[in-house]
Amino acid sequence: MAVRQDTIWERFLSPVVRLLIDEDGLQRYADSINWEEECDRFRRDDVIIPSYYSSQNFHGITGGYLTYGAAVTYDPITQYVVPPNEIIVRQALVDAVKVKPRRILDLGCGTGSTTLMLKQAFPQAEVIGLDLSPYMLVRAEDKAKKAGLDIVWRHGNAEKTGLGDATFDLVTASLLFHETPNEVSLAILRESFRLLVTGGQVLILDGNQKTLRQLEWLNDVFEEPYIREYAAGSVDANMGAAGFEAVRSQDVWWINQITSGVKPIITENVRQYTATSIDNNLEELGSPAFGIMA
Ligand SMILES: C[S@@+](CC[C@H](N)C(=O)[O-])C[C@H]1O[C@@H](n2cnc3c(N)ncnc32)[C@H](O)[C@@H]1O
């Protein structure tokens, strides 16, 4: 049987980062939450957890994202491992928005770090963060509440969200695709295409595929089961295959990339965006974004 080698993170980085992290404070935070009760507020019976996700220990955490440990440790660690700086990299995605979004969907939103920045940049927009992990959503909601931001958090699979056709002007995903097999990334892009209005924009922020291919060791920093598959692929090509046009990737500090695509005006089954007034309770609006929610 093959024995897993310790990652670069486990061997060298983790001991250093542990010195910088207030582990007692994190434990106190974790203990202050009744996780199962909080998660139950988000869990949806119609969400089927895919096996590529439940079978892996992302970042070496047993149980991966379906644990409160993942939700509590994600931000303290991420701040040190997205060079040159997490905020700069996430801001590059916000700066790449070319539409005036009335509705934004952030897929694989995790603890909501990018989602919060999108809401801050586009305060008039209805913003929804969607993730497979209710634990991550509990953390995301807590952050949004503390920041006074009105964001809807939804348990769901980005491959099949259950949200209505042509209901978003902007669909984003940050740091998601290096954690999904290629066919799942493609399915997520096809779903994004369906969800966008014509002229709507998709933005994918993630590791730089060229750099990951050149610097093989970067793929061994964390336990990332699908990162080699991600590095070998092309987000540009997948976007094209999903039907997007004006597909462009830009490097973000060499180690990250942002890929943008636009849903072309001439497509089959074009449906126009239905404007609704902005209100705090989205579901009461009869908004098309919630048209087929249970
Ligand atoms: C590395 S984290 C990125 C989180 C966040 N977007 C960020 O930028 O920090 C990947 C997230 O994607 C979620 N995820 C993975 N596959 C997903 C899927 N098919 N649908 C929805 N969320 C998914 C995981 O639960 C996790 O929260």
Draw up the topology in text:
Layout: H1 8-20, H2 23-31, H3 35-40, H4 51-54, H5 68-81, H6 86-95, E1 103-107, H7 113-121, E2 126-131, H8 134-146, E3 152-155, E4 168-174, H9 182-195, E5 196-207, H10 209-214, H11 227-232, H12 235-241, E6 245-252, E7 256-262
Parallel strand pairs: 1-2, 1-4, 2-3, 4-5
Antiparallel strand pairs: 5-7, 6-7
Helix pairs in contact: 2-5, 5-8, 6-7, 9-12
The protein binds S-adenosylmethionine.
The average pLDDT is 86
List the ions, cofactors and other small molecules found in this model.
S-adenosylmethionine
Class per helix and strand makeup = alpha/beta
CATH top level class name: Alpha Beta
What do we call the CATH topology?
A: Rossmann fold
The Rg value, from CA coordinates, equals 19 Å
Beginning-to-end CA distance, first to last residue:
45 Å
Number of domains: 1
The strand line-up of the biggest sheet is 3-2-1-4-5-7-6
Question: How would you describe the overall organization of this protein?
Answer:
There is one protein chain. The model is unreliable at 276-294 (pLDDT under 50). The chain has helices at residues 8-20, 23-31, 35-40, 51-54, 68-81, 86-95, 113-121, 134-146, 182-195, 209-214, 227-232, 235-241, and strands at 103-107, 126-131, 152-155, 168-174, 196-207, 245-252, 256-262. Strand 1, helix 7 and strand 2 form a beta-alpha-beta unit. A seven-stranded mixed beta sheet has the order 3-2-1-4-5-7-6, with helices on both faces. Helix 5 (68-81) packs across helix 8 (134-146) and helix 9 crosses helix 12. The chain has a single domain (1-294), classed as 3-Layer(aba) Sandwich (Rossmann fold). The longest helix is centred in the N-terminal third of the chain and has 14 residues, at 68-81. The protein has twelve helices and seven strands. The chain is of the alpha/beta class. Residues 53, 65, 78, 107-110, 113-114, 130-133, 136, 157-159, 174-176, 179-180 line the site of S-adenosylmethionine.
